[in-house]
Amino acid sequence: MKNSREPKNTPFEINGITVQPGTRAKVELPLAQLYTQTPLNVPIHVIHGRKPGPVFMVSAAIHGDELNGVEIIRRLLRHSALKNLSGTVLAVPVVNVFGFIHKSRYLPDRRDLNRCFPGSETGSLGARMAWQFKTQVLDRVSYAVDLHTGAIHRDNLPQIRANLSNEDTGAMANAFGVPVVINSVLGEGTLREVAEAQGIPVITYEAGEALRFDESCIRAGVKGVLNVMHHLGMTGSRRTKAPREPYIARSSSWVRAERDGVFLSLVALGAWIKSGDLIGRISSPFGGDDVDIISPASGILVGRNNLPLVNEGEALYHIARFEEVSEVAESLEVFTSDIEDGPTQSGQLPIV
Ligand SMILES: [Zn+2]
């Protein structure tokens, strides 16, 4: 009886396809072509709830070599929480299809698609793809999570980057449920900047390394996206406990290589580092003196270079500073063991 009084959702239309309430569809958005003139479509999964609610986008691989988000979305689509949905999920596993098939961050013209927004109909390849994506997908959306990893050979501790001056964005960053949040107003041309400018709150999840899967980063990502959907009132009661409040970094900075050589790291991601600590060495492969890397700052290691061959000036460590650094370190420990001991999400076998 109660159900008959619940408001019903109306059909959702995208790219000429009508998706009925309580159904799913895979829509192929024709964003580009190969020079063989084979269409290079961007598949968008539309999960349209029976009940009305927000239109929520989760996107990955706007940098084509950042793969954790692709697996996060694959697991999300199989998750039982999506069966009784209020509102609409637009899940885009691979935004930069060109980069994805070339295992590259960039487009074939070496542009970064995440610097091409809002784009234009008559601009470069990137501008045209960005414009299509913006007008056909992003403009329809009320909230979004964009999934990223570190660049090639760079590993990121799971973290949220968000413009916290927007209250709704800040609330999504809190809801995601990873311990570290970095307040960042992104540079020109990013999807996040353009969306925020038109009033769509977007958070970025950064976790792991390009061209690699990381099981913990993936699990935390699936959980985080579900936490945000729960916060937006799109899913029913939560089976797991509510996440702890995250810690917002006061600032963050990179430690760079002072000379060329072989880089040996002595600290792991998530480590609590104090100013003056020995955190690494640069040695020569042909003998000679080692150079110690002394941390210039206290904080938590949120990003690290994983390639031992470095040139002077190269970014080695990303350290985030916090008011309450010991609490962050403790929260990270709890978070890491919860994630590692917790479910893989959607009953998947863990990637090891
Ligand atoms: Zn990225």
UniProtKB/TrEMBL annotation:
Which CDD domains does this one have?
M14_ASTE_ASPA-like
Entry superkingdom:
Bacteria
Cofactor(s) it depends on: Zn(2+)
Question: A single Gene Ontology molecular function, please?
Answer: hydrolase activity, acting on ester bonds
Is Metal-binding found in the keyword set?
yes
Q: Which Gene3D superfamilies match?
A: Zn peptidases
The family database entries (SUPFAM superfamilies) matched by this protein are listed as: Zn-dependent exopeptidases
Going by the UniProt record, its keywords in alphabetical order are: Hydrolase, Metal-binding, Zinc
Residues in domain Succinylglutamate desuccinylase/Aspartoacylase catalytic?
53-232
Keyword flag Zinc:
yes
The cross-references to PANTHER family, in alphabetical order and at most eight, read: BLL3975 PROTEIN, SUCCINYLGLUTAMATE DESUCCINYLASE_ASPARTOACYLASE FAMILY PROTEIN
What is the name of this protein? Answer: Deacylase, putative
Taxonomic path: Bacteria, Pseudomonadati, Pseudomonadota, Gammaproteobacteria, Oceanospirillales
